[in-house]
Amino acid sequence: RAPYRHCARPGGSPATSPPALAVPAAQRSMCLGHRLAPAGPAYNVGEYTEIHGPVDPDRFRTAIQQVVAATETLRVRFTAEGDTVRGLVDPDPAWDLPVIDLTGEGDPRSAAEAWMAADFATPFDLDRSPLFRYALLHLTATHWIWYQRYHHIAVDGYSCSLLARRVADAYSALVAGTPHTPPPAPLAPLVAADEAYRTGQRHASDREFWTSALFGHPDAVSLSARPPQ
Predict the structure, then answer these.
(1) CA–CA distance from 2 to each of 34, 96, 103 (Å)?
(2) Per-residue pLDDT for 99 more than 70?
(3) How is the chain split among helix, strand and coil, in percent rounded to 5?
(4) CA distances, 217 to each of 101, 213, 221 (Å)
(5) For position 191, what pLDDT does the model report?
(6) Crossing angle of helices 201-214 and 188-198, rounded to 10°
(7) If you average pLDDT over residues 60-79, what whole number do you get?
(8) pTM score, whole prediction
(9) How would you label 157-173 residue by residue, b for 16+ Cβ within 10 Å and e otherwise?
(10) What's the pLDDT at 135?
């Protein structure tokens, strides 16, 4: 493993439990699916951002902390009892930002890709937040990589780009010395919108439409030799 240092932040969640949220159907299914195979990385999503130029790791960590504080999906963890799944938003989860020094490697780019591949194969624990993993990989004085890994239950591909933009805006403001506060992104409105849809007439109409549209069609084709579950 390459040498690294931590840009650590103090604190962590207090002992008191945060209030529980209902979760949308897609997250509920994903949570139950994860618990069938918790040791696998099938639900990992992420990306990496190449930065050509100098980077201040301490400011970068502060920018991430600002975004984490404003974005509840980065602080959520999940509990399940039977088929009931609840989301718990931790007010202040503990995390760090490893700075991986690859400047002494013969091929820093290959070393970075190997480090990211190994980390990406690591599964998350849904019972513990945060469901993200960040790292700064230092290749040369003017070449850095910001690595981002998430559990898909909290972040999708489109969200990755939104979060990267929020961190970039916060970091740019810190470097420029200009005031900036990432806008809040709470989960409760999304949960309420999903619940309103699922209990409303539109959901019933959509279900009726697709049941009628797909009636009589052959079973879905699969490339797997295994029978349908």
Answers:
(1) 30, 17, 10
(2) yes
(3) 40, 25, 40
(4) 56, 9, 11
(5) 87
(6) 60
(7) 95
(8) 0.83
(9) eebbeebbebbbebbeb
(10) 98
